[in-house]
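Lecture notes, unit on protein representations.

Consider one protein chain, 452 amino acids long.
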Amino acid sequence: KISDAEIWTSSISASIGTIVMRFLLGPFCDKYGPRIPMGIILFCSACPTALTGFVSSASGLTVLRFFIGIGGSTFVMCQYWTTRMFTKEWVGTANATVAGWGNLGGGTTQIIVGSLLFPMLKAIYGGNAEKAWRTACVVPAILGLVTSYSVVKFSDDCPTGNYSKLKKNNKMENISAVSSLKDGALNLNTWLLFIQYACCFGVEITMNNASALYFSQKFELSTEKAAMAASIFGWMNIFARGCGGYISDKMNVCLGMRGRLLWQSFVLICEGSLVIIFAHAQTLPLSLGILVFFSMFVQAAEGSTYGIVPYVNPKTTGSISGIIGAGGNVGAVVFGVFFREFEPKTAFILMGIVIISSSLLSLLISIHGHVKLFLRVDKTAKIKEEMPFRNQSNNKDTDISSPGSKATDIESISSPTSKDYEILDTSGASCVTPKKMYFPISNSTLADDAQI
């Protein structure tokens, strides 16, 4: 038997393990690609998961969950991967859908382990609940090992192949992981989104840790029924996070970055308001109903956040994604302390106030080349970051915004879409170029220096 405070301490420990690895793995994605780090982390987290059954003390559980928490850092590789695979006009939907179905594992685990495997094993072991839960943890560990092998064996880092081969053939720049982390960490927008992500994904982690315990204590449900009720929160990931990213993309089409920021603030306000309402619900049906809508806005806010992330600094997306992703786990630590120190109702209300307050940070987000939420900023886009040009003769990037380039009179471009491009054919040399950019380039240099 361990106390509720010791359970929350172990949950906080798991989040700390994830925070450390998310900070570290972002730069590694920029340098080595997502495939190898994903396989390694899945393997490393599956092993301690399989050893859960050997825990015999609260301190042992805390240490074990720290290492299991490392598995949560696979989110960094996930978001980096989809950012590399999809264009910016659809990246919000892509990032949100993949991450949402990944987080769906929370609800799936609640049902498979808590409501199916646990009672089945409990019956097999003649009602021995302790032996049942210790054995049940082997199943997710096996799935983790199988997935680890599959990722390394059958996937690619990006549409053109694996980073190692691209670098070997001089088709990709070999960047510094330290430099990537530095550039990402020195960007103010990174930390503003860090806080906002703490107030959505941090809430999801907290609810995954708290809801089953909350339902069992407040409404006196059995372990199996409480796990079933708690799984509702995770199951909203089937569609809610994807919808959050999709609406962010559509708002971007209508209003640009301002649309993404408006949606971001709206979903955070709704999320915070609903958690406060949830804290005051006195019946189980009402609590479950509010939980559904509360969960939908939590997932939507997560999807919305990672619709903005790829714009912050495209060259260091891995580091920025890792730092902001770590923000979610920092939020889980903070909110976990709330639940450890206060009654559940007070903890929910405090969490709601913090979430609503974080929506105001959208006013401060200022991404180069895009408008702010209510004020305009410099519209000159950073072309080198948005669209690196590859010189086919020497495999070097050409910064067309630099003084020595052949391109001049460059207008702002942000979130280029297919309608912004046209095919040019000059002396038999075809290339794709944005309609909003003008290239006074000679026929002899067009095919060599201006191909996208």
